[in-house]
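Researcher: Please predict.
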Amino acid sequence: LLGEGKGFYYIKYSEYSKRISPDTRTIGIITQPFSIAEGVQTRNIDQISQSGDRCRILVMGLVDHLRTRFPKASISIRNNGPDETKAMAFARMI
């Protein structure tokens, strides 16, 4: 687990891909919106303007890694703003 204090802890991208079947055809990433303009920010740390930018960089880096490892898979990011809760996003993926 890597991090720089508050809010941004993550595992190496390779740890995600180790846990995904090579036959996977779809991958969904659930995150909250990257900015207040895109939807509700639920954590206090996310009220900082740089927080969404950092999150976007990390998620897009993960997407790039997954596209390289799983070129036949469709990869989507689920963070559709205030009209969709994280629970709803999980439910849509099932």
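Model: The helical segments are 13-18, 49-69, 86-93.
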